[in-house]
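request received
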Amino acid sequence: MPGKFIRYLKGYLRIRIESPLPERFLNLCAFHGIILWGLAPAGDAYEMYISVKDFFRIKEIVRKTRTKIRIRGHYGMPFFFQKYGSRKVFPLSVLLALALIWVLTLFIWQIQVTGLKRHSPEEIITFLKETNVQYGMAKSRVDCQKIEADIRAEFQDIIWVGASLEGTNLHIQIKENVDSYEEEEPHEETADLVAEDAGTVVSIITRTGTPMVCEGQQVEKGQILISGREERKDDGGTVTGYAEGYADGDVLLERVVNYEDHIAYRHEVKTYSGKKKRNLTVRILKKELRLLSGKPSFSNYDTETTEKTLVIGKTFFLPISYRYQVMKAYDTVTEKYTREEAKDLANRHFQAWAEDFKKKGVEIIENRVKIVLGEKECVTSGQLTVVGPAGTHRPSEPLENTSLPLEEQQ
Amino acid sequence: MKREIAEHLQLPRDLAFGAVTLTASGDSEISLENYKGILEYSTKKIIVQTKECLVEIIGENLLISYYTAEEMKINGQIQEILYR
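response:
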């Protein structure tokens, strides 16, 4: 029993047979390997399906059994094309469409990068472009192993790369080493660590250089905390020279910082008027077609952009994408905060500011910030005592005859 | 003699004697193998010649879904299967 699809592909007929010996006709057909299906008695006759190929083989059986045959219907692809064949455009366009789809499957129409935390997909795609892996390239030219090796070589913190072709999509999976700390590049210049602000030293840990302050000491802004210069001593403990370096260490300072925030009760808010301007850009292959374009007639507007690549199924990305922009006009209207609203907002501003400070490793130990609700505005101001890192690097000042290597000094 | 040997060797009957194999699924479908041909066919009765006997299938709206030299399938409302 051939499959339905094969039967459709090859074409078949519905025939009606009238015969004094219908059973003999059926048996002879079976004997000669002619497949009949959908046999049904229809009055004095029988109707059945037969493939086109077998239909031309039953001539002899028809003669032997004195059977009359009438064709009741034509089915399948050959007849479909015969019917529409006269309209040349139709089969031609079907063939052309199939050919086009086939050609399109030979190229990369989407580069998908997943698993990123630190880097952005654009960064990877831009890098790939430099290595000639880009949108629209032939799939046969894609060397997944080379892509993997190139990415690993370029980005040191990427520990695993998997590149695979899925339909017309080049899928790059990446695992970054999120636990690794940023490796600082070795510093060639010499520098001191100086105080960013005035304050009291709470703790000092020196990794490279010479500590210049001690715990509990008051320091001024710009004062050297750790010097990049290290003493070189001989066996007797006499200073024989200095080695210049890049000061490194952690110095925690207790210092006072000011906070000030003004919130005016009268403020401007956006109200969308409902006027919209739409832009539609279609990208086919590498060309962009602007279907709807033009500048909006209004001056104040927000823009929402949607971009999408057309895809058949999950992986057959087509080289057609569109960008749809809606520009929404707004007017600015002056509104007024109530005192409570202003106070809430001031609180939120301060919390956000304090959160930022905490992220930098700064601890607030005393808070003397107050919210004052004035006539026209809400003012939040005051001082905070904080403890945190407050060192910055500054190039060392040259010291004559001190930075000579030890050997030369001796 | 042949029958005795086949039975002794426990050969399947359809292989040894070309016995008809009939598989009925409920009362609406029958598959037949090992037959010689159709002797009679109407919507109410189908008689099939096999090597050993005739198989008569009686029912309503009987339709031969497909018919080849090896196998045939009958659909319809089957009421009786007779061996003659």
